[in-house]
Amino acid sequence: MFPLYDVIVVGAGHAGCEAAAAAANMGSKVLLATMNMQTIAQMSCNPAMGGVAKGQIVREIDALGGYSGIVTDHTMVQFRMLNKSKGPAMWSPRAQSDRMLFAGKWREMLEAHENIDFWQEMITGLIVKDGICQGVHTGMGIEIKAKSVVLTNGTFLNGLIHIGEKQFGGGRAGERASTGITEQLETLGFEAGRMKTGTPARLDGRSLDYSKMEIQYGDEDPSKFSYTDTPTPSKQLPCHVTYTSPEVHEELKTGFDRSPMFNGRIRGLGPRYCPSIEDKIDRFADRDRHQLFVEPEGWNTCEIYVNGFSSSLPEDVQYLALKKIVGFENMKMFRPGYAIEYDFFQPTQLQISLETKLVKNLFFAGQINGTTGYEEAACQGMMAGMNAHLKVNKKEPFVLKRSDAYIGVLIDDLVNKGTKEPYRMFTSRAEYRILLRQDNADIRLSPIAQKLGMQHMEDRISRVDHKNHSIKEIKKYLDKYSVSPDTINGYLQEQGSAPLKQKQKLNSILSRPHMSLMALMDILPEAKKGLSKYDTETLQIAEVELKYSGYIQKEQEMVDKMNRLETVKLKNDMDYHQILSLSAESREKLTQIRPATIGQASRISGVSPSDISVLLVHVGR
């Protein structure tokens, strides 16, 4: 009934979809198994992609040949570049998506791929023989054989939904939980834990008074995520902002005694950086209001997502509290918010390739590894899919270093440090964030993907080559073009910048604070004429590389120094307990994680610089 697949992907959320696409685009025959074909790539929580650090991840996924950026560009209803008032390392693209169009576009792209088959059924177990994963068991008792398996189960593993004092099994509202896999993995020696996430109520937008709220438009000149020829939005939907109040907080407090968060029924830890509204009130008792973003779910629906009001309080308490929010006085609810508990597995049980240490040819990606967020899940799925393909073809795993991508930072953090709460990516987690900007992901990563054998990269590489050539031309022009004092001094004085006493090169003027290339082009007709043939993003990259050249050089020197440690290999069977000069904690952590290099060992929590020195001596360095 089934052929022998190269890769079976279990779960069709963001991680599963990217895993299937990546393996298939490298040439593997893939089966994507899901409990419901109608919910492929469903946006279970907020209808948005990107954001601070997350936007960088989406662009990195796209640069490596993934689909998340392409799907988002085709289905967005609003685009904003966040943090434009800060340095370019912080600029982060974010898009509101049409939830139904997003899922539909993902399914369309997956179904168009000749290397991807589908199977709708619960996967209840794995076929494991002699420590090697060889396929899956289904709920109907069918065995499907494969050379490798990628688990991307999301919140479905023994999922338990909480609304006030009510609780019932489910992986998502209206969908049953997945059972069997956790129990089998535990018998194989895996350590499982419980985590919690939540979602807010969905409201009827027709019942809200937007005139009482602040309006939040998209960018006037919107950009996009993908480096391919995807559309930029010709029209956008606005979002709105409103706030809770002391009256809202008092209403919510009436349900605290029935809250599963406070009475101990929820054992799993929730995301610290995206707390429920009851958690915010409890933790930030000195604040009399919290910001809420009123986000449309799509072009042709009145359903509204209330970002910032995640809750597991009883539905009647949620209802009464929501009606006390400005603009929500006549609110009608589609469904209440809820919390969900689910199983995850400590990611320290994984190799850096996302293959498990206990079972060969078995990979984990997404929330099963303790992460939260579509973007974090999607990039893990892509990396697991690529590495599953490489493994079955007896090739070396693909590993991104912390200096290569935010994706590399995320996986390195998970595998070396583990997580006690749902892991979310931030720009502050990256040491080299001036190198890992959202505007240069294609330059950094697309050539790597082509070398790995990712299909259909020719157009991307051509664009990268053109972009690199254009950046060099822009820099050369800025270094050549001189500006006279009488041409620009008026503008400089307006900006509070010292006037010129003699001619200066444009790149020297551009290095001043508060100077921008686009603004200088507006006041210097000759410069505008010379640079108008280049697109805005390429001009911005050239400007950033000129203005921040000192910082970029310093970070690159740090990268080169750290990469020297990455070349020093550690044997997988090294007996750390015999190296008595190591601290006791270091011996324990190194034995548990089994780092592949000295560089990886240096990032393990509990391994000190003196321990690294001992290891260097031990391996003859």
Structure overview:
The longest helix has 23 residues, at 458-480. The model has no long low-confidence stretch (mean pLDDT 94). Helix 15 packs across helix 16. The protein is built from 21 helices and 22 strands. It starts with 6 loop residues before the first strand and ends with a helix. The strands form 5 sheets. Strands 11, 12, 13, 14, 15, 16, 17, 18 and 19 form a 9-stranded antiparallel sheet that branches. The protein has a 5-stranded parallel sheet with strand order 6-2-1-10-20, with helices on one face. Helix 1 links the parallel strand 1 (7-10) and strand 2 (30-34). The chain has 4 domains: 7-197 and 342-451, FAD/NAD(P)-binding domain (3-Layer(bba) Sandwich); 199-338, Elongation Factor Tu (Ef-tu), domain 3; 482-550, tRNA uridine 5-carboxymethylaminomethyl modification enzyme MnmG/GidA (Arc Repressor Mutant, subunit A); 567-618, GidA associated domain, C-terminal subdomain (DNA polymerase, domain 1, Orthogonal Bundle), CATH 1.10.150.570. With 621 residues, it is α+β, with helices and mostly antiparallel strands.
